[in-house]
Amino acid sequence: TNFCCCSTMISPPVFDNDIISDTGGGIYFFSGLLVIQRVLNGSVSVEGKTVGSIAKGYVVLVGISDADRESTVEKMTRKMLHLRIFEDSAGKTNLALKDVQGELLLISQFTLYADCRHGNRPGFTGAGSPAHAEKLYQYMISLCGQECKTEHGIFGADMQVSLVNDGPFTILLDSDELQGMHP
Questions:
Q1: pLDDT of the chain along its 183 residues, tens only?
Q2: Catalytic: which of 37, 72, 77, 109?
Q3: 111, 124, 125, 160: which is the annotated catalytic residue?
Q4: CA-based Rg of the chain, rounded to a whole angstrom?
Q5: Phi/psi at 46 (nearest 5 deg)?
Q6: Choice among 3, 29, 86, 110 that is catalytic
Q7: Does residue 109 carry a catalytic annotation?
Q8: 113 and 33 in contact (C-beta within 8 Å)?
Q9: Euclidean distance between the first and final Cα of the chain, in Å?
Q10: Is 15 a catalytic site residue?
């Protein structure tokens, strides 16, 4: 199976002891994705019950692929927590989440890997297997919880997410870019 990213057909990677290699069709771009939304507040509910809520901070949609490892989660988490996207007293985006006592709401979302190239029904083969993705999602929750107030949704549940986007200010963080896999 070939995948498409940036209008280039590419082949899936070959895994060998945590090393991802090119199979001849180009670089494989399906790894960790975070959609980071700066918010005034956010919450997530399951079956009508609020399971997580935050004040000022980030609502983060978390996508994990089978190519991701704990080291990927560590790098993505470190980058997310240190992004300077809050305004300082001069109105410049110079402050990180900790600087503003911000909070996190993490939401697992395999649909970030939607492949819409064929037909009208998306495929999700780029998303990580549920067991692998949940393990790394829980690891991210644990890492973030060491740094700031961290709330989260329920992995695999049908969730309703509410937020007031501040700005709006939304960033897509791709682990491939952080690892220097493409320009």
A1: 333 333 333 333 333 333 333 333 333 344 789 999 999 999 999 999 999 999 999 999 999 999 899 999 999 999 999 999 999 999 999 999 999 999 999 999 998 988 899 999 998 988 889 999 999 999 999 999 999 999 999 999 999 999 999 999 999 998 877 766 443
A2: 109
A3: 111
A4: 17
A5: -130, 125
A6: 110
A7: yes
A8: yes
A9: 24
A10: no
